[in-house]
Write a structure and sequence with these properties.
single chain, 6 helices, 32% helix, binds zinc ion
Length: 216
């Protein structure tokens, strides 16, 4: 799958070991991509089977009753995990992302970063960072390489780079080996959710100078 998850991301997501920013991208991606969703379910099932093989730990007296009592309580909408929820028909953002933004695409507080491109950094913990990117139709993102892993999920419109074309729901996984210059397709602005675990390596002077300001 060149537009979906790799094995490492599926395993990490199923095990809950991904940095928060990556977890957000994966949760948003699997809401839009059936193959990746099925892959994650399969890994979660494997994880569950492995847990069952572990030697059971002694439980305190009353633990079983307390757990069963919890199951009887009705689940409120807030408690439902957005991880595997599917998006409503008209929303641009999947539920997992909406929880971070406080709404859909129209609720984003954009910051201009030049060339008509805008970003919104999302509040995630840990080493990796997550941001929304708004790229006007036909506009290019400055040519860059990667010092770590970059996940880019398309939510609206499409972009093309040296690898392929990526449309809504498609995920591009870039690493140290890839240098690319994504260009938004003509027609409508491209909105992406991107996460990185290391700063990008811009190949042109001006983006490189602006980099610390935009924390990209
Ligand atoms: Zn990149």
């Amino acid at each position: 799958m060149t537009h979906g998850l790799n094995e490492k991301l599926m395993m990490g997501y199923a095990a809950g070991t991904l940095p928060e920013a990556f977890e957000l991208v994966v949760a948003s991606h699997i809401a839009l991509n059936e193959d990746s969703r099925a892959g994650v379910h399969a890994h979660e099932a494997i994880g569950g089977a492995l847990l069952e093989e572990q030697t059971p730990a002694e439980l305190s007296e009353g633990a079983l009753e307390a757990t069963l009592a919890l199951l009887d309580k009705p689940i409120t909408e807030k408690q439902m995990s957005p991880r595997l929820a599917e998006p409503t028909a008209k929303a641009v953002f999947p539920p997992a992302l909406q929880a971070y933004v406080g709404g859909d695409a129209d609720a984003v507080q954009w910051q201009s970063i030049g060339g008509g491109i805008k970003q919104a950094i999302l509040p995630t913990q840990g080493e990796a960072t997550a941001r929304l990117l708004y790229i006007p139709a036909g506009q290019a993102v400055p040519d860059h390489g990667h010092r770590g892993t970059e996940l880019t999920l398309v939510l609206q419109g499409a972009f093309a780079d040296e690898v392929d074309r990526f449309g809504r729901g498609d995920l591009e996984i870039a690493d140290e080996d890839l240098d690319h210059k994504p260009i938004a397709e003509a027609g409508e602005p491209c909105i992406c959710l991107a996460a990185t675990d290391a700063p990008l390596r811009f190949n042109e002077l001006i983006p490189r100078m602006l980099q610390p300001i935009f924390k990209i």
